[in-house]
Write a structure and sequence with these properties.
Distance between the termini: 13 Å
Oligomer: single chain
CATH superfamily: Flavodoxin domain
Radius of gyration: 18 Å
Strand order of the largest sheet: 2-1-3-6-7
CATH topology: Rossmann fold
Number of helices: 6
CATH class: Alpha Beta
Helix content: 25-40%
Length: about 210
């Protein structure tokens, strides 16, 4: 039995294309994997801790080989709790609208909270990074949506720092089994056709995820 965690990065509720496609994915996943557990973490629900001065200080304390204390210890416990919720998942679904060419800031906040030494990475001064989530059978699927940018368009319509950044981060942590589901109707495209295709891809990916 596997556990799937949906990281929802859109604040738009029923108006969100990425959440709608994710909903199709989750419905299909439950149908094909009835014994698995499914959890959605709405990154906008207020449970994601901040990563401010105390947390940054704690991170540097850990890098220095010491244990955080005081406010740093409190911030470090919050970061670890967020990481443990994330790490408990065998399967990850991320619904990611494009914001200004990249990802919503709340998803970047999540990444900064959980990307800690001894949690998702180690580092050696000679050999570089080690990817601590590797070799554990974790898989990820990402729903990428945008309204203006599209793969067939030139730089006058923006650039894709959305999927490139997220895929690089997932791979850096050790998760390299990544599926993509895309909805990029662009300003002049056929949105209904693109939407139908995206939901079909979501069903196909979820069935064997």
């Amino acid at each position: 039995m596997a556990h799937l965690l949906h990281l929802a990065a859109s604040p738009r509720g029923a108006a969100s294309e990425s959440l709608a496609i994710a909903g199709t994915f989750l419905d299909t996943y439950r149908e094909h994997h009835p014994d698995d557990t499914v959890e959605t973490w709405d990154l906008w629900d207020g449970t994601l801790p901040s990563f401010g001065p105390a947390a940054v200080g704690a991170k540097m304390t850990v890098f220095g080989g010491a244990e955080p204390a005081g406010e740093q210890a409190v911030a470090w416990r919050a970061a670890r709790a967020a990481f443990e919720r994330y790490d408990a998942a065998d399967r990850l679904l991320l619904s990611v609208p494009m914001w200004n060419g990249g990802i919503p800031y709340v998803l970047k906040q999540f990444i900064d909270v959980v990307s800690q030494p001894g949690m998702v990475f180690g580092v050696d001064p000679v050999t570089g990074y080690s990817h601590l989530l590797a070799g554990r059978g974790k898989r990820a699927a990402a729903v990428y949506t945008s309204a203006v940018w599209g793969p067939a368009l030139g730089p006058a319509f923006g650039r894709d720092f959305q999927s490139t950044y997220l895929e690089d981060w997932l791979t850096w942590t050790g998760i390299d089994d990544i599926s993509e589901i895309r909805f990029h109707p662009t300003l002049v495209g056929d949105a209904d056709e693109a939407r139908t295709k995206a939901h079909a891809v979501a069903r196909d990916v979820a069935a064997t995820f």
